[in-house]
Amino acid sequence: MRERWKAYTLAEAVHAIARKKTIIVCAVSQRHLPFLLNWIASIARHHRHHEVLIIAEDYATLYRVNEKWPGHAVLIPPAPQLQEEHKFGSHFARHTFVYLLGFCDFTSRRPRHLLSILEFGYSVLYNDVDMVWVKDPFPYFKEHYDLYFTDDINVVSLHYRDGLPNICTCMLFVRPTTGGKLVISEWIKQIEAQVWSASNKANDQPAFNRALNKTASSVKGYLLPQEAFPSGGIYFRNASWRTETSGRHAIIHNNYIVGFDNKLKRFREFGLWYVDDTATDVADGLMHLTTMD
Questions:
Q1: Is the dihedral of CA 275, 281, 286, 289 positive or negative?
Q2: Count: domains in the chain
Q3: What is the pLDDT of residues 216-240, one digit of tens each?
Q4: Nearest residue to 148 via CA among 221, 204, 216
Q5: Taking CA 101 as the corner, what is the angle to CA 100 and CA 102, rounded to the nearest 5 degrees?
Q6: Is residue 282, in this structure, part of any structural domain at all?
Q7: Whole-model pTM?
Q8: Residue 181 clears pLDDT 60, i.e. is over it
C-alpha cells in the first residue's frame, strides 16, 4: 500500500478529494501532526473535512495520514529531507531542509503546488496548521474576486506603511481565474528573485506582497475583515477586542508566538485545542473522519 501512496499524484488527489471544484489544503511535516489534527478537527465541526488535502513534507506523514484516512495526503517529489526543526511559528519554520535541495526551490514549493491546483481548474483554500476554524469561512468567499487574503497586522488600528497592508501567506483563497493564476505565478518569480543563503533566511511573505502589489491592476483581490480573520497578535493579546468581536470570528491564527509547546499551551488556554491527548496514537482521530457527515 505504501507504494500506492508513493505513486499518488497531486492531480489524482485533487480530483478525488475536491468538492464542487474546491479544495482545502495545508502543508505539514510529521513533527507538527498534532496541530494538523487540531486544524482538521476544527474544520470537521463545520462539515468541510472531506475537502481537505494534506501536502506531506515527508514520507512518514504521507504514510501515516493515508493509513488512517486514505487518499487525503499526497507528497510531491522531491521530498524535502528535513534535517532539523526550526522554531514552529517563526518565518523560517516551514523552510526546514538540507542545503542540496536549495533555498529557493524549497520555498517556492508551496506557491507551485497552489498554481498546479489552479491549473487543474480548482479553487483552493490554503491554511497553515496553526489555525483553527470557529466558523465556516466560505460565506466570505462568495463575491467574484480572484484572491482573498488576510492582514498579518497585530494592532486594531490599521496604519500601513506606504498605504499597503502586510498580507499573510498563511491563509489564502484563490480561484482558478486568469488573475488568480497571475498573482501566484508572480509570487514564484518574486521568490526566485530573492537572495537566499544560510545567513539570509528570507521567507516567502515579502515576495507575495511584492507580487500582489505588482499585479494589483490585473488582479481582483479582497482583504478579508480583521474581526473574522484575526492574527494571533490581536485575538490572543487583546481581550477587549476579543470580547467586542465575539461571535464574528471565523479562522483564528495562532501566530505572534514561537514554539510548538507555546502554541499548544495557548490553544489549550483559550479552549481551541480539540485533540484527544490521552489517545495512544493521536492520529487515530483521522479514522473517525471517514464516517462523519
A1: negative
A2: 1
A3: 999 999 999 999 999 999 999 999 9
A4: 221
A5: 90
A6: no
A7: 0.90
A8: yes
Q: What is the CATH number for 218?
A: 3.90.550.10
Whether residue 19 contacts residue 51, with contact meaning beta carbons closer than 8 Å, is answered with yes
Instruction: For residue 221, list its beta bridge partners.
Output: 147
35-54 pLDDT, tens digit each: 999 999 999 999 999 999 99
- Distance between CA 176 and CA 167 in Å, rounded? 20
Query: Which cell numbers hold the place of 66?
Result: 493515508
Phi, psi of 78 (to 5 degrees): -75, 145
Its domain, for residue 72, covers: 2-277
Adjacent-strand bridge partners of 88: 90
Question: For residue 119, is it left (φ>0), alpha (ψ between -120 and 50) or beta?
Answer: alpha
Closest CA to 134 of 233, 270, 286: 270
